[in-house]
Amino acid sequence: MWLVLALTCSLFNALQGAYGKKILDRINPYVLTWAMFLYDLPIMGVLLAIDGVPVIRPGFWPALTVTLSINLLAVTLYIQAIKRSPLSLTMPLLAFTPIFLVLSACIALGERPGPLGMVGIMLIVVGAYCLGLQGRLSNILDPLRYLGRERGSQMMLAVAFLWGITAAADKVALMNSSPVFFVCTFHLLYALLYIPIVRWRARQEAGQILRRGPALFLFALLGAIMIISQMTAARLILVSYVIAIKRAGMVFSILLGYLFFGERHLGWRLAAAALMVAGVCCLVL
Q1: Is residue 137 scored above 60 in pLDDT?
Q2: In 212-228, which positions are buried (b, 16+ CB within 10 angstroms) versus exposed (e)?
């Protein structure tokens, strides 16, 4: 059962990214970011009513403050990345998140990855290199230069780095409350805190939050299904396994990019994604 839920999470993560890219040609990216949290609030409120308010321990609020502060930037960059570059060159780069986690643990705690962890890091790096292959190589650095020219790819690497930092804060917040309460509180505060950003960056388009209501609600609904599937699966199996399956959604993203946006080099990018998924699995194990 947990595997079905984790795969559902993975699929809807990819669907939300693809649908977001589709509607970003007529919706301001800051409005879309705001709507992701605002339109989910009724769903999260129902879940909280069913689950109940847990005992809130002291570590919850500091951890929530850290993850909220960082995610105000990270989620904004995530939406900008899928707008600016092909899905097949952005979504797979989230596989770097566990690498940044390992590196931060190595620097802060002196924890070094074992042999399997090193293999995982190498597979993710090689997979990222293969993402940039566009045909015959004239220089071994061509794939890296190609990715480096993609603004969206640069942004998504920054997102992976930031989410590597917030992962520890998320875990602390969850341990000091409950998954439903954490997600509901996070969505509420994010929606409130993002209002000044929308007024600053998208004042003229802020009315889209109502005019584009159906499209924005569907985008938020896809995210809600993803989160609910992830939380439910995490109650049945280790969270690290669920995240590994979620990251496998990069394969779905590449297929959706090919089918709906005409993105090229399907074979190369699927092979690259397979290497990166294998690398994530090695790191998890």
Answers
A1: no
A2: beebbbebbbbbbbbbb
Whole-prediction pTM: 0.90
How many residues are present in the chain?
A: 285
Phi then psi for residue 43, to 5 deg, are -65, -45
pLDDT at site 105: 65
Q: What is the pLDDT of residue 138?
A: 58
Cα–Cα distance measured from residue 177 to residue 181, given in angstroms and rounded to the nearest whole number? 7
200-249 pLDDT per residue, tens:
999 899 899 999 999 999 999 999 999 888 878 877 777 777 777 887 78
CA-nearest of 102, 92, 97, 77 to 129 is 92
How would DSSP label each residue in 55-120? PPPTTHHHHHHHHHHHHHHHHHHHHHHHHHS-GGGTGGGGGGHHHHHHHHHHHHH-----HHHHHH
Q: Are 122 and 111 within 8 A, CB to CB?
A: no
Nearest residue to 97 (alpha-carbon basis) of 73, 74, 80, 68: 74
pLDDT mean across residues, the chain: 87
Over residues 133-138, mean pLDDT: 59
Residue-wise DSSP of 154-221: HHHHHHHHHHHHHHHHHHHHHHTS-HHHHHHHHHHHHHHHTHHHHHHH-TTTTTHHHHTHHHHHHHHH
Residue type (1 letter), 9: C
Amino acid sitting at position 183: V
Distance from the Cα of residue 153 to its chain's centroid: 13
